[in-house]
């Protein structure tokens, strides 16, 4: 099994920045990719960014140029640096780990509020 714990919850004004962290533990060798997802009230969950074990990153069009995903393998942690935040970025953010069965492991979520 894999456990994921997000941190970095916060409230910022539009234009501000936040950094989310996703700490991995357990059978981390099973992880091929870690992604960040978000869900706003009344909306479907959407993918935000993902990074594989080689560091290749992918972003949703809505966050390209503003968000950066990175990983520190020594700390088994994936980060999401969010800059130039907009009110529409307000959501509950989750990290998820992808193994052979897809994104089977999820964190508990961390709230980002942009006013």
Brief write-up:
With 115 residues, the chain is mostly beta strands. 0% of the residues lie in helices and 57% in strands. The chain has strands at residues 2-7, 10-12, 18-26, 33-39, 46-52, 57-59, 67-72, 77-82, 91-99, 102-106, 110-114.
Written account of the structure:
With 115 residues, the protein is mainly β. The protein has no helices and 11 strands. It has strands spanning 2-7, 10-12, 18-26, 33-39, 46-52, 57-59, 67-72, 77-82, 91-99, 102-106, 110-114.
What share of the residues lie within helices? under 10%
Topology pattern, helix = H, strand = E: EEEEEEEEEEE
Strand residues, percent: over 45%
Report the sheet with the most strands, covering strand number, pairing sense and barrel closure: 7 strands, mixed
Overall geometric form: globular
Low-confidence stretches: none
Please tally the helical runs, counting DSSP H or I stretches of 4 or more residues. Answer: 0
Beta strands, count: 11
* Alpha-beta content class: mainly beta
Q: What is the mean pLDDT?
A: 95
Cα-to-Cα separation, first versus last residue: 37 Å
The rounded Rg comes to: 13 Å
């Amino acid at each position: 099994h894999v456990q994921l714990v997000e941190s970095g919850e916060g409230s910022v004004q539009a234009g501000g920045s936040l950094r989310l962290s996703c700490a991995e533990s357990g059978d981390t060798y099973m992880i091929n990719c870690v992604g960040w997802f978000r869900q706003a009230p009344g909306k479907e969950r959407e993918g935000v960014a993902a990074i594989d074990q080689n560091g290749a990153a992918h972003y949703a069009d809505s966050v390209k140029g503003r968000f950066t995903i990175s990983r520190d393998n020594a700390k088994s942690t994936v980060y999401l640096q969010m800059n130039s935040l907009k009110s529409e970025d307000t959501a509950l953010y989750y990290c998820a780990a992808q193994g052979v069965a897809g994104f089977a492991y999820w964190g508990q979520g961390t709230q980002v509020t942009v006013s």
